[in-house]
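Page 47, continued from p. 46.
Same chain as before, 166 aa.
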Amino acid sequence: MTQEEVARAALAEISPAGTVGDLLDSTAQDDGTATLRFVSTLPGYPGWHWSVSVAEIAGEAPTVMEAELMPGEGALLAPDWVPWAERLEDYRAAQALIAAEGAVDDLDDDDLADERDEDDDLGDDPDDGIDFEDDDLLGVPLGGVDEEDEAEAESDDDGPEQPDET
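Result:
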């Protein structure tokens, strides 16, 4: 088996079928190792390539040491990592700025709310003008349940009644 065949077999074990393209290049080292690079056809990974390191000892079959997906020229990469403490400082500064701008905007919003209150027409909501704290509103005190009602409720808690034997 050639180094390329061994490398393709290793990539077939770790990548979906059809995601390994043509051989880009092969770099041999003096110590009997070689690195083979293949085009990656993975969706969402433009500019990336597969890299497989193969070792070949005299008289032995080639062996895969490492296989990985590596960014190439023009590959899309994640942005540089920023420590949490720095991100938190940036976040707090942005929140302070928003709060400062919001204080100015709140004054304008309060003025608009006052105008809306003046334009509110009574009668468009059936509950307008009703005082729900008034005990005599419905002629029923809001104080609680009558003692008779409590006695009936307690008797119902004894369980189901037995059917009449007829």
